[in-house]
Fold this protein.
Amino acid sequence: MVRAAVLPAVGSPLEIADIDLPEPGPGQVRVELAAAGVCHSDLSLTNGTMRVPVPAVLGHEGAGTVVSVGEGVTHVGPGDDVVLNWAPACGSCPACALGEVWLCANALAGAGNVYARRSSDGSDLHPGLNVAAFAEETVVAANCVLPAPAGVPLTDAALLGCAVLTGYGAIHHSAQVREGETVAVYGVGGVGLATLQAARIAGASKIIAVDVSPEKEELARQAGATDYVVASENTAREIRALTGKQGVDVAVECVGRAVTIRTAWESTRRGGRTTVVGIGGKDQQVTFNALEIFHWGRTLAGCVYGNCDPARDLPVLADHIRAGRLDPGALVTERIALDGIPAAFENMVAGKGGRALVVF
């Protein structure tokens, strides 16, 4: 038996429970978790903004050590440190054929499987977003694990699985920020902090962090922000004032709210680019009129998983970490146990802190 955080139903509170994991079958890997990040996507699964089969064990950002492997698994073995990949590419769908593996049509196919059972009554459990990282151990498909970068502590490597890849990719792959450009980052949570670090690595000349909380300014500046704006109805105007009345070259929205997306778009210069990372609900409607789209010539783009290929990008991130340019640990403002996840969700709703990290 292992302890896990179980979501019994959408809208229900998480329950810390014992679960029974099977031994890994062909093409599967059993992993003992070292750490798992608490992401806003996990919160979105609990409230129904995103949907997965339930009951489920959530958690998709994690790292640990291989306990055992099933038949046919050769790229990792017992004792190897690994990073969980919650969105493995199938390699055969139209998106994968185009090289856009982050849009793989089959990436979440495993979320519908039964991967474990609750010890108390034998009821089926699904792996939320494929990997079920909110547990002491998990069993995943072999393509859901990647070798952890050498020289990177597992507690840092856990954050590479979502927050850091997403923030880095938003800057380097989606927005393609060039040296000397100006950047605004909306939302200073875990992904926002990673985005700020990535903008600094890209050589942005001015990096403006925007958040509703004044208390996050120090966090933002440590991550690379040169300026800090407390969100208000005047945010776009303030950002234009900080950029010679032009607006920033690039805005990255990490919140997922219609008003924030619209403000991010308005805060860019004529011809500017806005990348939307935040996951909003269907009720969040963003509107534009045809004339302003023509006149401003701005670009608005979605960004899934940072438009990243984890197998390609993890070694790049590892080089940045070892060189001291990137610090995943700086995203973490709270280290908790499994039973601290509900409080971490409450802090996210309240806009407090950066990343909460479950340490096993």
